[in-house]
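[job 0417] fold request received: C-type lectin fold
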Amino acid sequence: MARAIRSVIVIFLTAVWAATALADVKTFDELERRQGAVGSYKALVIGIDTYADSVIEGSPAAVTGARHVADALKGRAGFDVKLLINEEAGRASVMREFRGLARGMGINDSVLIYFSGSSHTDKASRKAWWLPSDARSDDAATWIADHEIQDAVNTMKARDVLILSDAALGDTMFGATHRLASRRDGDYYVGLFNKRSRWAMISGNTLPVAENDGISVFARGVASALSSKGPCLTTMEMFSGMKKELRASGVLPPRCRSIRNTGDQGGEFVFLLAAPAAPAPVVVKTPRVKPKPKPATAPVAVVKLVPPKPKRKPLEGQLKVSANINGAELYIDGKKQGTTPVGDITLKPGTHEVSLSKEGYLAWNGSVDIQRGKARSLTATLTKEPPKKGRLYVKVKPKGASVRLNGESFKSGETVSAGTHTVKVSSPLFKPGQAKVVVAPGKDAWVEVFLKPRSSFKGEWGRFVYIKPGSFTMGSPSSEPRRKGDEESHPVTLTQGFFMQDKEVTLAQWQAFVDDSGYKSEAETAGGAFALEDYIWTQSREYSWKNPGFPQGDDHPVTGLTCADIEAYLKWINGRSRNAYRLPTEAEWEYAARAGGTSAFSSGECLGSVDANVDANASWGGCPAGTASSGTMPVGSFEPNAWGLYDMHGNVAEWCGDWYGRYPRKAVKNPKGAPSGTNRVVRGGGWATYAYNARCAKREASDPSRGCSEVGMRLVVEVPR
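[job 0417] inference complete; emitting structure tokens
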């Protein structure tokens, strides 16, 4: 039969669709010869050693390791391999390949995905990500989350899916495992092959660890396993051999388990290995034997035989020197002879002093006796120099920040070699920081690296501006025109900074949530939203976020949502991000709206049609009248306040996270509103609001189940401590 095609990908994927029957292999002969139900083998191999974001550290062994594995898969394993290297391995390209594997592989095929690059793990949330080549260090939405890998595997129809990751991932995707059987005959391999499998083997290091030849230890272990003698190789057989090799190399051993919630049925990925190429036959030519000459008839001549002169023995001897490590400097009798291995050194007879040295190893000294005309070999064993170590403690803020010591992942309290070290600390919402520390032999050393939040970050849900902690007077003074009785002024201190969305949530951002989740808003499933009809707020089933009663575009703020709708939106966002998104508290909203000022509006004591989208068709407090508005406008249509926030007055009023209640009569820190209530706080005024009702201090109480075409939202992100 024609040779079955196999493909390799830096991830092994095998998905299960129960609706289609899986063809079984009946005998080991069918399996070995790839007959009957044995499908094609495809691999996706990803190698990234260079990142567009210079903050992300790559490993020089990543690409060489990926190519080494790809060659091994194409060899005896017979895979059809797709190789993505560096800029070819952006997030969009990798996800597109995942979808192609889900569509293109049949139920009797096998998929392997191999990833060799950098990863990030969050110990607090136990989440983990692969970092594609275009990943941004400050935006987790550009990474590939472990649950996305898990989802991709779950969509694949293939018989077997195997993910090999030369970069650490969390343990949340792991399911059950089983031991390697002591007896492994033909029935054993057939049994494993006939059951669907979804497995992952994950390195214990966050990026590939190189050996002397530049190939990662993990990649060499995979290639070595694929060169085994037998016709079959299972996942656990590969894992067993790699675990021993990696431990012997001094790196963290890998983990190997099934991938949970992907349809694994207890099988294993079975590699079918072609027989090694047989050596070429040796052809021996037999010389023809000439017939013996006949005796001569002439008289026999007398020949005097002179014995040959003995060959003169050479005056010198030869020496070959090797060592357990290459590159050691060789000195004989104090004269440098090169670096190991060194061969065919000509020496005079006698005893010679030999020494070998290499940085990081103890010097080797010995002697060798050379005899005239003879060759000798000398093999030396150099031992590593005992490290002089101390213990290093690193205190970081925020908690859970990634710590790297001299480029390697580091945990506070570990022992390190004596000397000067560079500690680098990073966290997605913070500016990276670093410090140098000197560790003395046998001593403890301490260093603190406290990160400062970034001034802003931009992600899938827009741009967020950092709002520093501080104090302000919340409420309005008694002299402010049109103030209400629930605006009592009182001192407020916010001790923790936060990131606030610089614009209101748009229709396009809400639409992305609906498209992905199929969510129906309460206005669509109940009595509809409220819209303005002839200056009267009227509830109707025809009104919702889709139809607020006026024309709108994707860049307009979304309206007509209840608090329950917003909670569903936040749950969806937080499930896709490592950040904690929520609505602002009422105090956070007013603090950000004032932007350090004390006037009625962030723009001063008056607000007109040139300042915000409000109903300015009435004069008040000495402010000139403007024009009325008929609906929302694109977000960011007016100048931002001093802190870079748009539309804090007008366009749409904004839900806050607080229950509406009376203000406290004393100074407070980090207030979160009333402990309970019937109405939620709404702030900022909207397009149909008179200007004086869009003041910084103006409060509105609204039924949380009431969606209105004048009310929207903006989000904040908590800053880890």
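[job 0417] notes: Residues 28-272 form a domain with the Rossmann fold fold (CATH 3.40.50.1460). Confidence is low (pLDDT under 50) at residues 1-21, 282-286, 294-307.
[job 0417] exit 0
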